[in-house]
Each structure stands twice: as C-alpha cells, then as structure tokens.
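so the lab meeting is tmrw and i was supposed to have these ready like two days ago... anyway. pasting both below. for each one the top line is the aa sequence and the line under it is the structure tokens. i havent really looked at them closely yet so no promises
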Amino acid sequence: MRVVLSIGGSSINPEGKPDIEFLRKMAKMLKESKHEFGIVTGGGSIARAYANAARELGAGEYDADSIAIVSTKQNAHIVIAALGGAAHPNVPATFEQARTAFDGHKAVVMGGTIPGITTDSDSALLAEAIGAKRLVNISNVEGIFDSDPRKNPNAKKFATLSYDQLIALAAESDKRTAGTHFVFDMLACKLIARSKIETHFVSCRNMKDIAEAIEGKKHGGTVVR
C-alpha cells in the first residue's frame, strides 16, 4: 500500500536548522514499515523568511512563492539523506516523475511544485497521482482545532471531521499567500474530498501517533474521512 506523508517544514527545521533526532526517528519508522511512501516536504520558517524578504525587496507573490519552493526542496533533500538508499536519490519536479520513481525504492520525496500551490495541495495531488488512499499530515500542531491552539488555550481539538466540515473550517482562513494558511488549505481539502483520501493530522512530536496514522488506526490527532 502507498501512503502519502505531508511533512511540515516546522517539523523538519523547527528552529531554522534540521531536527536530526526527528529525521532519524522518522526514517527508521518508514524503513521498517511495510508500506511505500510518497513524501512532500514544506518549507517552514526558512521559506517564510525568504518569501517575506522577497516581498520587502519588491518581489510579487509569484516570485515570493518561487523562493519558498526552493526551501521546500532543500527540506526534501535532507529527508532523502535521512532515508538513505530507501529513497529515490532525486527530488521529482513533477507528479509524473514521482509516479515512475518508485521502481526499486521505498520512498519518493518531493518539495513544492508550482507557485500559488501549497505543499498541502501538492501532497493531495501526489496521493491522487500514485493511487494513495491515505494521507498523513505531520506538523507542529496535534490535530485540527476550532481555533488556533497556540493563541487560544481553550481551543477544541476535533477527533474526526467530514470532508465538508474540513472545507468549511479551511474557508475561514484561506488567504492564498506563501507561508500563511490554515493547517490544510482549501484546494487541498477539496482534492482529498473529491478522491475520498482518508487524511490524518498528527504532531511531529508524537511518533506513536504518526505510526498509528500511517496504519489507519486510532490516534490522538484528527481523522478526516
């Protein structure tokens, strides 16, 4: 079975440098799994910093997005390094390339693809392209909440949501600019809904939850189906 992982940049480089412990634990888990993995990496704080700097220097949104995409691909390369021979050694530029890159490899790792498209949407498109019916979103948040838990200590976490409920929550926050969006953007929500891709939202700090989500089992995050 193929499973897509969308790994947020904040999970890979939470303080502006790669989290070696997280990468080692994640790589070990994936290499021991019976599944094949399509992986999409976000850009995190580095991508946001470069995109914002580009805007301050007069760049438009297309160029800010393009610069952010470079950071996502840098993170893809560090994930490939962690996986070693289990991963295809190159970062595919397109979903078509990713689809054909599994031959002899357990994992294929991508960054962003097109300006204006977040890595959330890239992960949903990759799932469609490779026929994955399960997607695991790994970030620095424990799931989906009714408000930002970093700002509201009383925020309520959802254990389960329907696709329509997720779309309604995303609609409240969709801004379509690099580095600023709901935990899963509107386009990504609609893509998983149209293809009925079961999507799990878990924290990078909880390897047990990540492992359970990969298997489609109950965990402490949020499941959308």
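ok protien two:
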Amino acid sequence: MTEYFDEVDQNDQILRQITRTEAHKHNIMHRAVHIFIQNENDLLLLQRRSSNKDLDPLKWTTSCSGHVDAGESYIEAAVRECREELGIKITESDLKEIFRCNPCIQTGMEFVRVYISKKKFKEFSPEISEVSEIEFFTVPALIEKCKKEKEIFSGSFLHLFQLTASRLEAYSNDS
C-alpha cells in the first residue's frame, strides 16, 4: 500500500500530496510526530525499532513516532501512532505538545511536533513489525546513554532528545 504525505513549504503550509518514496528520495519537506510516554515514576518509555524498518532498524527512539499522513493533523497522527506501534488507547487530550522542530537533515526534512503523555497504561502491546522491544529510562540516564552510546539511537531521536531533554525534565518535576 502506497503511503501519501502532505508536501509542505518552509512555513509548514500544505502544497500537494506526495508519496513516502518521493518525500525521502528527493528530501521533500513533510511532517512527522514523536511521542514520549512517561510513567508514574517519571521514566520515559523508549522503543527499539524493528529489524524490518527501512530507516534506523534496531535503533532506540521515542516511545512512538511516525509520519503525518496526507490530510491528517499532527495530533491525529500522534494518537494513531500510539495505537499502531504500542497498542495503547490515547486521546488528543492525553497529549501535550512540548516542542516543534523545523525540517533539517537530522529529521529527514520533516517538520516535527513532539508530544508527551503521562496517562497511566496498564500494559503495552507493541506491534512486532514496528517495535522489537520497549524499555523505561530516567531522563538523566538517557542523557548519559546518548553521550556514551550514540550508535544505538536513531539520528532523529538524538537530535530531538538533545533539543527537548530539559523540557522533559521540567515536565517530570512539574507533574
């Protein structure tokens, strides 16, 4: 099945629909979301991407992430990705936007919105075609791990985590 995205201009305004292949092959600006799930102990859930993934297989990344489909809003994509990748039911009101990132090489020319949720989940049902494993980390432990073991993380995660780590810690302390 062909995936379609919205091509956007430098102001994140929709220009036309393009295929996933076009977007990545020609470095065309499009949209994506990254979501951090934080548990009651302020630990962040990370997923290790499946070996089947075409980009960054077996690399650690945010709790879930993905492209915004053509005609879809950022928040709708975030809800969908949580359901598809982690098997969790989450609503738009369960998510708080904490950061926006403009397109760059590290994000694959994507406008990215980063969300966090502290909703309590009894269990996760990761989709094995998307996720190979999940694990919880403290923000300080992740900061250290990113410095010492960069190669185990996706490039987009390293970029976004560097930009959001202080916000994630503040969110932990405020909630």
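from a quick look at the 2nd one: The first helix runs from residue 20 to 25. The CA atoms of residues 153 and 169 lie 19 Å apart. will dig more after coffe
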